[in-house]
What we know:
By secondary structure, this protein is an alpha/beta fold. Helix content is 33%, strand content 25%. The chain has 4 domains: 1-81 and 161-241, 3-Layer(aba) Sandwich (Rossmann fold); 87-153, no CATH class; 255-330 and 419-433 and 448-501, P-loop containing nucleotide triphosphate hydrolases (Rossmann fold); 337-415, no CATH class. Strands 6-9-10-3-11-12 form a 6-stranded mixed beta sheet, sandwiched between helices. The protein has a 6-stranded mixed beta sheet with strand order 18-19-20-15-21-22, with helices on both faces. The protein has a 4-stranded antiparallel beta sheet with strand order 2-1-4-5, covered by helices on one side. A hairpin with a 2-residue loop joins strand 11 and strand 12. It starts with 5 loop residues before the first strand and ends in an 8-residue tail after the last helix.
Amino acid sequence: xxxxxxxxxxxxxxxxxxxxxxxxxxxxxxxxxxxxxxxxxxxxxxxxxxxxxxxxxxxxxxxxxxxxxxxxxxxxxxxxxxxxxxxxxxxxxxxxxxxxxxxxxxxxxxxxxxxxxxxxxxxxxxxxxxxxxxxxxxxxxxxxxxxxxxxxxxxxxxxxxxxxxxxxxxxxxxxxxxxxxxxxxxxxxxxxxxxxxxxxxxxxxxxxxxxxxxxxxxxxxxxxxxxxxxxxxxxxxxxxxxxxxxxxxxxxxxxxxxxxxxxxxxxxxxxxxxxxxxxxxxxxxxxxxxxxxxxxxxxxxxxxxxxxxxxxxxxxxxxxxxxxxxxxxxxxxxxxxxxxxxxxxxxxxxxxxxxxxxxxxxxxxxxxxxxxxxxxxxxxxxxxxxxxxxxxxxxxxxxxxxxxxxxxxxxxxxxxxxxxxxxxxxxxxxxxxxxxxxxxxxxxxxxxxxxxxxxxxxxxxxxxxxxxxxxxxxxxxxxxxxxxxxxxxxxxxxxxxxxxx
Length: 501
């Protein structure tokens, strides 16, 4: 097999209007965790799709265990010892955990009869490896995104592959689940497996990886051992420049209250939430998974029914029963899960940008003004550096980071007074993170009120003027910027409270 278990040499791949890969190279050693780094659109996922047979290469060579290969499909790749955990989950929601784990390779008694007992027992053992004690017969659609992610990880492990690709595997995981994943990765590495690890979280790269290869704009930049790199040097390789301020916060004048929430409640999710948001303020919401932060924001935005409490904007009580009511009152919301509640995957980039502001494009005889739509989309596309072949391109074909920028552009077009951003930089590269942070702080400087939910403590502390901390559906504290410490906020986030009923 030689020094490397996998070599991908001089790989090129073009899509209409985009050179996704331009002669890139990746060499991965057995028994190592190899980070594949780069901004969104750098070509990381495209290269992995070329490896496992989703995309075909235009040029290049793939050598696996010393032999040249070119997989026509993912089944052939799996059977050859290459598995992949995708960034975008694709569970079968109406089937059980067990069915999802073994789909297409179910154990059988003879040719036609499923061995359900073995399937159940093997599923239990596999789930235990990733720290889950759920019943394998539970429907996957009833589980949290984090648990669905752990199931995908368990499935990848079950193939006993020599090369395992993990594309943003911790994007939906808690700290404890991430620790469990790292235990699994270390065990696999000790068994001689090669892990290709794609992540934008720098702390993870330096904790778990041995080497890093960097791409930029579809080109190979370089490879080095992690011990020879720093966060600053790695970022410079990725973006071609130094990012002096990841959290470029502007000290804004805090004005009058623009949004007031009093005793807001939703049974089973949260109770008695009260706060004020001021003009020019970035109000952070922190807490552990399940704290109720997202549910509060979905209720304010009309995605979830409230059981009690009041919402006021500029002193006037609002009756918000659906998102269009919130939009009419100049409240926007960038949702947590861009795939489930954000993008319209079959529609174009233009339609996805314009949809929340569609009323402003309706002209005489209810005809859409496509010229105005295109001009405004191009304006915001330029401001946010959205990379797309054309505005008619289906948004599903863009990278995750560019999809997120499209959603940011959508809400900027509505010119909201209040903008709620829920995990605004999840799955976004460091360069795009800095750009989105700049947009958020500039909106605050214009006198907008911003509510930011983030599970990344440095992000919420770096951007917010105040942080509201929640635990199990209740507020446990409000912390002013001058008093921010990670220890204090985590203490409040873990503070025991009576569960919401």
